[in-house]
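Table 4 source record.
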Amino acid sequence: MTHRARGPVLWFTGPPAAGKSTLAAALRPILEARWPVEVLDGDEVRSWLSDELGFSRTDRDRNIARIARLACLLARNGVAVMVAAVSPYAAARAEARALAASQAIAFFEVLVSAPLAVLTERDPKGMYQRAQAGQLPDFTGLTDPYECPEHPDLVLRTDVEPIAASTDRVVAALRTRGLL
């Protein structure tokens, strides 16, 4: 049996509707030139991995820990993993990074952001409007905090930069780190 090199974990964090999933979809074909790729979209993964969890801080942290373990399992087996999850709390993201480091997995954290007005306008699910109307308690960025990373590997402002430019910046950063 041959040993397959570990894949990286690209962790896209940011408020809802910032463009995390869109960015992962744009990067997928580029990464597939080197690795098998899995995208762990926060909404999708929650529906089958953490469907019993709510949105308390404890439940959100538990969900992120599960996603991190799954991402590392895949990466250990040679898969490039893109996590596109709000992951609002710094401590949970730090634990995800530490887990990857403990397994010699490259972890690349990208903050994907835009101002609240832009997020509200582009929100495909209408979550911001419902949260502002009091229909969604504990909504990240409004009634529940989003803790921005202090030292992300890359910051992307999707309100001022087209997705193609953001994708190019991620690819350039991965090349600089020797991951592409």
